[in-house]
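Why this split exists: single-chain examples teach little about how molecules sit against one another. For that reason, every record in the complexes split bundles all components of an assembly together and asks for one structure covering all of them. Below is a record exactly as it appears in the raw files.
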Amino acid sequence: MKRFTALLIALLLLFALTACGAEDKPSDGRTGFIMGIDPEYPPFSYLGEDGQYTGFDVEICKAVCDYLGWELTIFGVNWDEKLVQLDSYECDCVWSGMTILDSMKDAGYVISAPYYDNTQVLVVKEDSGFSSSADLAGKLVAVQLGTSGEALLNGDLADLSATFGGVVTCDSFLKCFTELAGNSVDAVFVDLPVAASYAAEHEGYKIIDEQLGAEQYGIAFRSGDKALCSQVEGAIAALVENGKYAEIAAKYPDIVNNLLFLND
Amino acid sequence: MSLLTMILKMSEGLGKTCAIFFLTLLFSLPLGMLVALLRMSKNKIVSSVVRFVITVLRGTPLMLQLLAVTYGPYYLFGANVSRNKLIPVVIAFSINYAAYFAEIYRGGIESIPAGQYEAAEVLGYSRFQTFVRIVLPQVIKRILPSVTNEVVTLVKDTSMAFTVSYQEMFTIGKQIANSQTSFVPFIVAGVFYYVFNFVVDRVMGGIEKRLNYYK
């Protein structure tokens, strides 16, 4: 029994030590910044031709870090665990075409001002003959787990999703499109910019002209990082001011029209 | 969402988890025996080919094999991806587990002393009779603990079927965790797996006990 108690105490101490390690992260006098991204989410964040992460969000974050003199580290999160990874200090923010959900605010996360207006669309094969969401009654629709599209199909758009033959959740949106290409689903439900850039790069797909569910993108920080959030927001405002923001946005024609800071 | 709704929703996926589990055992246990016998074949070509296949199956991640079986035909030949994901999932799991079972069977078969074969020959048993009546019953008893190990692992590995968009229990758990920003579904999943394995452990223990007729 004594030995067991000793072991238990040793274990508890070990936990205490790791906990201390986590609390020790710098809050002010920051020199580095870890950006949490979904590495498979073009055009916001993806692995570029040169093997480096790029995308609209990544470029803006790089500019922000340059502006603030921070060293940027990019960390690919597991999208459906993103908030857990944020909480465990694996990254300092989640910034990757992330839809602002009320449940995030309720859970205490600090969310930046929205920077992007998003809608969801259905992508189908060009030769499929589907032209509206009503045509997809009884058909299979793929959606990425942990995305706002999935949340919409379970929430605001539950009536629509009930008419589908079924909803298949995949672990990345590229897998959703593979399922579509291989005819195992009939449509993919995804954010408009992602759909637009995919349909532009791959032949044989079309976007159903129906914008479903309006929402906004923001950056998520840990509950205690209000100051960090306003620091980043301030830097973005400065980039909008000096034209750098518009310069980066011009490289992403699919999304430029929905950027809130440029269309005020 | 209440805890009860969570549990009910995840139980829906439990059926699909069970489908992977039972179908995989149904196919991989006999397939493993076939592979083990080929692996021990006197024909050098057969045995080395089978040996190579086993190293590939044991040396690459199950997740990769799942992707290869499900999406491989599409990428290679443009064939349609299966709408019923249970088919590629069970194929991938069965092949993978057969490789592990084959090596367990081989270990068991090779542990039987050569003297028994000689004695059986003297008593006029054919090679087939010797294997089925004398060797196999002993092998089953010896390998049971190792087989239990694999079966327990299989229960937990079913969660990997999500890689190919098969909606089993853990996938549903993740969906709920997401929409509710809650950690509770993972605890529920943990309890589900534990209870499942508790039953597996009891069943395998029971079989072991029944086979212990000489003790």
